[in-house]
């Protein structure tokens, strides 16, 4: 069960930039070995809450990697999946990529602009994990993914918490039921907006 407190935010009003209150008296208590699952309808303030939590984690000097929602933007840059990884990681370890299991080594040579949305998401997630954060923050990582990819990512994230590779995971998702099996023995805190 959780041992180290990562965030303890007393009750506050979640507001938009213009001051509109989205949720009153929201309190967050998030510890290591926990998954904070944020859900709610479109426009309920999920991404606004993520911004607030990122600021709090930054102030506590906790190593965080954030993977935002991925827009399906076409790019004509002639870069490969391996290039995307190596731009922020430097030399990449094939063994680490293989052990993580999100990208097949043969896919490293795929051009970014011809890779599927799922391959792009798995690449950005691999990059974030290999940067070795204490907390990983994912905004809608399962949007537009098939069941196999969703399951693969969910089980990978659960394994990383169990093995203490990650201290904590903050996850925004509309698909809360897809994670039940992957996270069944973990401490999941649900925050519905």
Compact overview of the structure:
Strand 5, helix 5 and strand 6 (168-172) form a beta-alpha-beta unit. Helices cover 31% and strands 25% of the residues.
Oligomerization state of this entry? single chain
Indicate the low-confidence ranges by residue numbers. none
Taking strands numbered 1, 2, ... along the chain, how are they ordered across the largest sheet? 4-5-6-3-7
The chain-level mean pLDDT equals 88
What is the number of strand segments?
7
Beta-strand percent range:
15-25%
Sketch the major β-sheet.
Answer: 5 strands, parallel
Alpha carbon gap, first and last residue = 25 Å
Number of helices: 5
Any idea what the radius of gyration is? 17 Å
CATH class of the domain at 5-71 and 134-192: Alpha Beta
Shape, per Cα inertia axes: globular
Which CATH architecture of the domain at 5-71 and 134-192 would you pick?
A: 3-Layer(aba) Sandwich
User: Which structural class is indicated by helix and strand composition?
Assistant: alpha/beta
What is the helix/strand order?
Answer: EEEHEHHHEHEE
Write the CATH homologous superfamily of the domain at 5-71 and 134-192: P-loop containing nucleotide triphosphate hydrolases
Q: What is the name of the CATH topology of the domain at 5-71 and 134-192?
A: Rossmann fold
Amount of helix: 25-40%
